[in-house]
Amino acid sequence: MKAVLMDDYGGPEVLYLGEAPDPVAGPGEIVVDIHAASVNAADWKVREGFRRDDVKLTFPHILGRDFSGVVREVGSGVTDFAPGDDVFAVIDRGREGGYAEAFAIQAELAAGKPSTLSHAEAAALALTGLTALVALEDAAALQAGETVLIHGGAGGVGSFAVQYAKHVGARVLATASAHNHDYLRSLGAEDVIDYTRQDFTEAVSECDVVFDTIGGEVHARSFAVLKPGGRLIHIAAAPAGFTAPRDDVTVIRPHVGRDRAHLERILELVAEGAVRPPEIRRMPLAEAAAAQELSKTGHVRGKIVFEVR
Ligand SMILES: NC(=O)c1ccc[n+]([C@@H]2O[C@H](COP(=O)([O-])OP(=O)(O)OC[C@H]3O[C@@H](n4cnc5c(N)ncnc54)[C@H](OP(=O)(O)O)[C@@H]3O)[C@@H](O)[C@H]2O)c1
Q1: Is residue 127 in contact with ligand 1, taking CB distance under 6 Å?
Q2: How many CB atoms lie within 10 A of CB 176?
Q3: DSSP 8-class letter at 59
């Protein structure tokens, strides 16, 4: 099969389109012919060797954490899928391989893809939606009437989070640069703060929840806008050596596990009309290096998705 391979850590030039062995379905696995695969912010970081001491890659390595496609083969013990079924999935932690024409994944991590979503839309919603749900539904337990500030509202995770929070009945505030404000309002944000022109701590106060997808100094300054008893949920790192300046708020960096239940929750929200896919920029696998350079700018609106076939 064709796949985007890398033989070493490095810049975008280490990525090349080549041949990799076709996967076979082990017990409990399905082989999926990938139609669309996501580009995630983690991908260029893994490529550059970020956290290489914690997560050792075996080369040649294939990046990519979520995808949508069609089941080609089922392994022994798989009863919930058959060849020809449309599925989407987030690959288990510690494994990658979505930048390819096929992948063998545990069937229990995949969910059936409805015909109302294209493969690109399903891929765009998979890890982003799962992460937003783990953060706002599971960790924050966001409630109607609460005020939530979402940092990075125009990103992949943020696009889902803004819609979910609006659906729950929260008052949704979000940060983004000006060219994304109409997009964020269309997703349900009530107030949008242009973080390039205004210090969000001067525009916002008394939040019940801050969802931080940016990290660094944004994390540090977020404490100032929380009410006592508030929750700071973050999926990007705090500054090195940072200590929380308040003990009357709860800080959670949730473990984002992978499972079918969260994917089915995404589908439920889509079916209800509560959430729609993010804006998608479609690219071919052959442009993986360019896609990662775009992702690395940190200013992609919505999601980049590879159209594989
Ligand atoms: N823990 C996990 O399992 C997990 C899972 C998924 C993602 N993540 C992490 O979560 C982070 C977000 O992921 P993502 O996929 O949503 O990222 P993304 O799509 O790459 O986010 C890009 C967006 O961030 C916005 N942005 C950049 N700097 C900003 C700032 N200072 N303030 C407000 N908005 C800003 C940009 O909007 P503008 O152009 O308007 O600036 C852009 O729309 C990444 O660090 C990723 O690695 C973690």
Answers
A1: yes
A2: 25
A3: S
Q: What is the pLDDT of residues 77-116, one digit of tens each?
A: 999 999 999 999 999 999 999 999 999 999 999 999 999 9
Kindly state the percentage of the chain with pLDDT values over 70.
100
The reply to whether ligand 1 has any atom less than 6 angstroms from the CB of 158 is yes
Tell me how far apart the alpha carbons of residues 239 and 168 are, in angstroms, rounded to a whole number.
Answer: 31
**Alpha-carbon gap, residue 44 to 4, rounded angstroms:** 13
Same CATH topology for 2-125+278-307 and 127-252: the answer is no
Identify the CATH assignment for 127-252 out of 3.30.750.24, 3.40.50.720, 3.10.450.50, 1.25.40.10: 3.40.50.720
* Separation CA 148–CA 151 (nearest Å): 10
Q: How many CB atoms lie within 10 A of CB 58?
A: 5
pLDDT at 141 over 80: yes
CATH 3.90.180.10, applies to 2-125+278-307: yes
- Ligand 1 in contact with 65 (CB < 6 A)? no
Looking at the whole model, is its pTM more than 0.85?
A: yes
Q: Which atom of ligand 1 is nearest to the CA of 45?
A: 47
Domain limits of the chain?
2-125+278-307, 127-252
Task: Quick: pLDDT tens for 210-222.
Answer: 999 999 999 999 9
Biggest CA–CA distance in the chain, Å, is: 58
> Using the 8-state DSSP alphabet, how is residue 237 labeled?
P
Q: Is the pLDDT of residue 9 over 90?
A: yes
